[in-house]
Design brief:
Length: about 325
């Protein structure tokens, strides 16, 4: 196992279930071992996560797909066989585990750190990006694109080369200062399929899968806790022909691709499309956006890692 992929351990939080996430103080009845413990001042929590019953929503409800219903103030997310989640405003989450599922189950946290976290980001003024991010020369390199495209696997190669992780799969973009957007750190873990982990000589012995029946594991890695300015964003895309593989710079509307947003249909349904466009525009003004067409082969990972890190180093050769 590469030295830089030595496990990160948050340990038991001495503050009684207080965690740090995107600068928020999170109080949780559910253990969240993926998160760092809260080390800020003693103050009321920004987000409260508890377990309890989640009844159907009342009043004028709308639906996004078969699993999500919402009102102006609340959202219910039914994940069959796992849990029902309710988000009230941007500060309270209630989790009702499915029969036979323990609150501390990894699959409870899988969807908590996915759809539920995206909703919290939207409602707390952040833009959730469907991206993995690592630090390169003091800036954030974003690897974005649809599920299964290889974001986490490429990020693992970069972490093994000594580039600390900021976040995997979901990154938070803070555009409270549109002229100086920031990528905020999330959990110091990568989610890797066993095939990718084996190819990279990363051992998964003793690790629980992210969900029962999946050969996909959450692997603790070296990470940074610092918010960073985006240096480049790379939209990964799949091609079946090797001669079509390569990088190209995106300009204008091409650089404002909704695939870069985590749960874009949900964000639009909740009324956040203007924020999505403004956030993507702020990102594109700050950092060049590229499309990287690649094949499914894992053998090209070293070459891809060279190419994407070079995007930042060419702009800052003395960085």
């Amino acid at each position: 196992m590469p030295t830089q992929l030595q496990p990160f351990s948050a340990g038991a939080c001495l503050s009684g279930g207080l965690y740090s996430l995107f600068g928020w103080c999170v109080s949780s009845e559910i253990p969240l071992p993926e998160l760092r413990c809260w080390s800020g001042p003693d103050r009321p929590a920004d987000v409260l996560i508890r377990t309890g019953q989640v009844p159907p929503l009342n009043g004028d409800t709308r639906q996004v797909g078969p699993l999500i219903t919402f009102t102006e103030t609340a959202l219910r997310f039914d994940m069959p066989g796992v849990a029902v989640y309710r988000v009230d405003g941007g500060s309270a989450v209630t989790v009702e585990p499915a029969p036979g599922v323990l609150p501390e189950s990894p699959e409870i946290r899988l969807f908590l750190f996915g759809t539920v976290l995206a909703v919290l980001c939207f409602r707390r003024g952040l833009l959730p990006l469907h991206a993995s991010a690592v630090e390169v020369d003091g800036q954030a390199l974003l690897l974005t694109g649809p599920s299964g495209i290889g974001k986490s696997t490429l990020a693992a190669v970069l972490v093994a080369r000594g580039h600390p992780l900021l976040s995997d799969d979901l990154c938070a973009l803070d555009v409270s200062r549109p002229d100086a957007p920031l990528i905020l750190p999330c959990t110091p873990h990568l989610k890797l399929w066993q095939e990718s982990a084996s190819h990279l000589n990363i051992r998964t012995d003793g690790l629980l899968p992210v969900r029962d029946g999946l050969e996909k594991f959450r692997i603790p890695v070296a990470a940074t806790a610092e918010a960073l300015t985006p240096g480049a964003a790379v939209l990964l895309s799949r091609t079946t022909r090797a001669e079509q593989a390569g990088l190209r710079r995106l300009h204008g509307a091409e650089a404002l691709n909704h695939e870069m947003v985590h749960r874009p249909r949900l964000g639009i349904a909740l009324g956040y499309q203007p924020r999505m466009l403004l956030g993507l525009a702020a990102l594109a003004r700050t950092a060049p956006v590229f499309q990287l067409d690649r094949t499914d082969t894992l053998e090209d990972l070293p070459e891809l890692a060279d190419a994407v890190t070079g995007l930042i180093r060419k702009q800052h050769p003395d960085g």
